Q: What sequence folds into this?
């Protein structure tokens, strides 16, 4: 009688057999899954390299340059001297104060395109015409916008003539230090809210219409629908518009400032980006300008992260 053969699960010594080698199909599946995981990284690599080479590396160089001196101390390490100079410069403190004003006015700058996008989405009469009219200022050059509003807001311009007809005294829109910054910010909001409007309309395209229908059936008014339905549903879109609008206010108002006020009157309309240009282009202090640029970057980072945190908490509470 021949020797007994081992069972399918144990050998003659009672031990479990060694695991079988992976089949060719299993190896192919593993290679395929690994390729799928690496594919996004390969596709993103060129964009990442471009951002790192053209954005991050110059940013690091600028931060490093902000710790060097100007003039006789050119190239010397001066530590935090440039930042201390900024803190003691009245013009830079005015620029920081104006940044605080922009933060306070930011909800208005976001609410205007948000409400207009809501009316367009609800298809008020003439909504197709309004969509084109509202977006038109976004394609104009800031220099052209500034020149137009210089004429409209002149002391003897059309706006003051209209106010005079209503019995209201003329306002020195661009010559009064207490009014000029509000005038420039208002013009900037008018000139740029078209892009935010497009973003809001894209957000409305993802909105579930059944939710709006349910609110209408429940008898919700328009303000109630906006507050309790539309705003919570578009929380991600609102976050994006808040951050991009704030960045635009801090980095895209140079053209208007240059044309409309030149930083005046008495430096009252200075913003960090305009201060950077003055120090670099007119005062020939590139290291101090680099310190101001670094401060502007930190301001945008802190304000942006703070806005996202506040909006996320508000969304969770709703």
A:
């Amino acid at each position: 009688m021949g020797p007994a053969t081992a069972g399918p699960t144990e050998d003659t010594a009672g031990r479990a057999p060694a695991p079988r080698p992976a089949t060719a199909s299993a190896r192919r599946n593993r290679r395929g899954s690994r390729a799928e995981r690496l594919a996004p990284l390969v596709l993103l690599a060129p964009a990442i390299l471009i951002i790192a080479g053209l954005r991050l590396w110059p940013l690091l160089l600028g931060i490093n340059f902000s710790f060097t001196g100007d003039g006789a101390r050119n190239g010397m390490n001066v530590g935090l001297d440039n930042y201390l100079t900024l803190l003691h410069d009245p013009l830079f403190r005015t620029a920081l104060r104006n940044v605080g004003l922009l933060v306070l006015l930011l909800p208005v700058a976001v609410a205007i395109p948000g409400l207009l996008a809501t009316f367009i989405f609800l298809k008020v009469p003439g909504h197709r015409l309004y969509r084109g009219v509202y977006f038109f200022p976004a394609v104009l050059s800031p220099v052209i916008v500034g020149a137009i509003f210089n004429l409209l807001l002149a002391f003897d311009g059309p706006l003051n003539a209209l106010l005079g007809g209503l019995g209201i005294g003329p306002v020195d829109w661009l010559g009064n230090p207490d009014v000029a910054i509000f005038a420039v910010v208002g013009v900037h909001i008018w000139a740029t809210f078209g892009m935010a409007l497009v973003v809001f309309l894209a957000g409305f395209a993802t909105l579930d219409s059944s939710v709006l229908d349910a609110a209408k059936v429940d008898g919700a008014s328009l303000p109630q629908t906006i507050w309790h339905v539309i705003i919570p549903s578009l929380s991600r879109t609102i976050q994006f518009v808040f951050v991009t609008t704030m960045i635009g206010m801090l980095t895209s108002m140079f053209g208007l400032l240059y044309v409309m006020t030149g930083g005046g009157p008495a430096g009252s309309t200075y913003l960090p980006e305009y201060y950077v240009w003055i120090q670099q282009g007119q005062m020939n202090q590139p290291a101090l300008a680099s310190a101001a640029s670094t401060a502007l970057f930190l301001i945008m980072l802190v304000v942006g992260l703070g806005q996202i945190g506040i909006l996320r908490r508000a969304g969770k509470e709703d």
Observations:
- The chain is about 70% helix and 0% strand.
- The mean pLDDT is 85.
- The chain has two domains: 24-65, 81-317.
- The CA atoms of residues 188 and 253 lie 7 Å apart.
